[in-house]
Amino acid sequence: MMFVTIIVHYNNPVECSRFVSDFLERVESHPLILVDNNSTQNNLYKLKTKINLERVLLIESSINEGFGAGVNIGVKAAQKFNPEYLHVVNTDVILINPYYISDLISVLKNNAEISLAGPLVYKNSNHETQNTILPFPSLWNSLIFRFRSVKSYESKSINVSIVSAINGVCFVVINKHFNKVGGFTESYFMYGEEQDLAYKLLQKGYKSAFVSTPSIIHLGANIKPEKIIDWKFYAVRSNQIRFISMYRTKFEAFLLGFVFLVSITLKIMFGHKFIGVKNQTKHIS
Fold it and tell me: What value does the CA radius of gyration of the chain take, rounded to a whole number of Å?
């Protein structure tokens, strides 16, 4: 059961080092690769002083090309360990179940059609569930996203559900399959790259699954959205258009762009604050 954990860090040394230290103490020994996405020198120094560099392979990227690109760097370095599986997890998380990786790998071993599996993720200490089950972008899914019935769920025993895609906050994927489809598509920078990956896997006959084993608390999921139109707002929507343009039709992508334009106009009319997004994503990961 050889696996490698890959974590992408960007200017968050406190949460990252706290999670890495707890993770190394509680999860079975295995290679852990930490990719720094060109953090400031001060934050990189803080990170180095807070983690055990004898147990962590720290890769310092000289450029921030986004989350997917950071993972791809880690995956490339992981090949020297010849892993069967790749475990990818965010930095802004708290570990609650050190056995979830084993549960996910067990699902992959026992279900030949599944290539990628993601666990149950909570968004706070009250164990409120974060929905990590994602649909593939389409005009229809964008219109009904608030009413989707397929969502993450808790269960008394570990259940497995075939889904379209899994949120990139935490998952395990078969190494050879990840590499076969070229890893993450790096043009996404952030948001939507996990749906793109799942779609590329599905095109090769490899499915994704939600596994109801508890895993982590995702601190970032509990941040209440403000009434603003910022880089994140644009990134999510522009990446949906990118996906549809690549895998569906240019016309559907055009229609979705028009729907988003109308949505933005209405939001501004009803009090959303517009924040210029030029060059913002160059500094985000």
Answer: 19
